[in-house]
């Protein structure tokens, strides 16, 4: 017989989201929709020092980063802003906040691993990115986009090594497995559990822009990262 020392947290259904979560997703998506192009810079030292929390999006070229940012912000011109000639190898910042009051920054870092890029540009870029990820003071969280059909690649692993000390110090970290619509249910479950083992203290979520899978969950997490004081405490699931 089992003991009764662990009462269930609630009597509601385990699968249906609580109404409260739906409201939280609406708030988070409304907030993400306020994203506006702020500035662009070729290197960290050209970026303005900022006080508000900053979330960086990183990933290999073609991982689905632009599509993910467009989906989360419900705007097409944002990723377009990062595609303008001269900005593709830049750090692009977007401001977020209701009523014109910036309360967070979303950073789009150029995709890496694109084969046609000359080697010396690749090395330069890796240094810019590592410098940004290691020293940007207001950096609060990192979202690593990964196409689950390829899994984490060598360059993703290098990035994980670079940020590991900061994650251990409390930097938030999320791996978004994109294009989940391309996977069968069992493939999705498998890659999710494998990636969780590799995520080193970070979270992992499945995402599909076409099927709108994971959109609410990623939005809520980004909101939570940047508004810790306004987040209602969740039932204790921490280890
Ligand atoms: N099926 C599917 N294709 C996607 C999804 N997200 C991105 N893609 C496709 O993947 C390719 C690369 O996406 P993009 O956002 O440009 O990747 P980026 O280089 O990381 O910015 C494009 O052809 C997208 O249409 C998704 O959720 N589902
Ligand atoms: Mg892109």
Explained architecture:
Helix 1 crosses helix 7 and helix 2 runs antiparallel to helix 3. The protein is built from seven helices and seven strands, in the order αββααββαβαβαβα. It has one domain: P-loop containing nucleotide triphosphate hydrolases (Rossmann fold). The chain starts with 18 loop residues before the first helix and ends in a 13-residue tail after the last helix. By secondary structure, it is an alpha/beta fold. It is globular. A seven-stranded mixed beta sheet has the order 1-3-4-2-5-6-7, sandwiched between helices. Bound molecules: guanosine-5'-diphosphate (GDP) and magnesium ion (MG). The site of magnesium ion (MG) has 4 residues, from helix 2.
Write a concise keyword list for the protein shown above.
seven-stranded mixed beta sheet, 37% helix, Rossmann fold, binds guanosine-5'-diphosphate, 7 strands, globular, binds magnesium ion, alpha/beta, 239 residues
How would you briefly describe this protein structure?
The protein is of the alpha/beta class and 239 residues long.
Describe the secondary-structure layout.
Layout: H1 19-32, E1 36-41, E2 54-59, H2 65-73, H3 77-83, E3 91-96, E4 104-108, H4 119-135, E5 139-146, H5 154-168, E6 172-177, H6 185-198, E7 203-206, H7 215-226
Parallel strand pairs: 2-4, 2-5, 5-6, 6-7
Antiparallel strand pairs: 1-3, 3-4
The structure holds guanosine-5'-diphosphate and magnesium ion.
The site of magnesium ion has 4 residues, from helix 2.
């Amino acid at each position: 017989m089992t003991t009764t020392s662990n009462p269930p947290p609630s009597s509601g259904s385990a699968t249906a989201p609580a109404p409260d979560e739906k409201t939280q997703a609406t708030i988070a998506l409304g907030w993400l929709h306020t994203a506006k192009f702020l500035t662009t810079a070729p290197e960290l030292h050209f970026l303005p020092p900022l006080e508000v929390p900053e979330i960086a999006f990183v990933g290999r070229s073609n991982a689905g980063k632009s599509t993910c940012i467009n989906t989360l912000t419900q705007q097409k011109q944002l990723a377009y802003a990062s595609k303008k000639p001269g900005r593709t190898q830049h750090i692009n910042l977007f401001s977020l906040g209701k009523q014109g009051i910036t309360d967070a920054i979303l950073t789009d870092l150029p995709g890496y691993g694109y084969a046609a890029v000359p080697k010396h540009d690749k090395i330069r870029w890796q240094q810019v990115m590592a410098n940004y990820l290691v020293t940007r003071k207001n950096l609060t969280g990192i979202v690593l986009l990964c196409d689950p059909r390829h899994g984490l690649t060598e360059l993703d692993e290098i990035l994980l090594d670079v940020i590991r000390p900061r994650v251990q110090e409390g930097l938030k970290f999320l791996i978004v497995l994109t294009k989940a619509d391309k996977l069968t249910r069992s493939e999705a479950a498998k890659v999710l559990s494998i990636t969780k083992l590799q995520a080193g203290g970070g979270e992992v979520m499945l995402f599909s822009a076409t099927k709108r899978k994971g959109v609410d969950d990623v939005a809520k997490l980004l909101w939570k990262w940047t508004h810790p004081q306004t987040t209602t405490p969740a039932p204790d699931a921490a280890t």
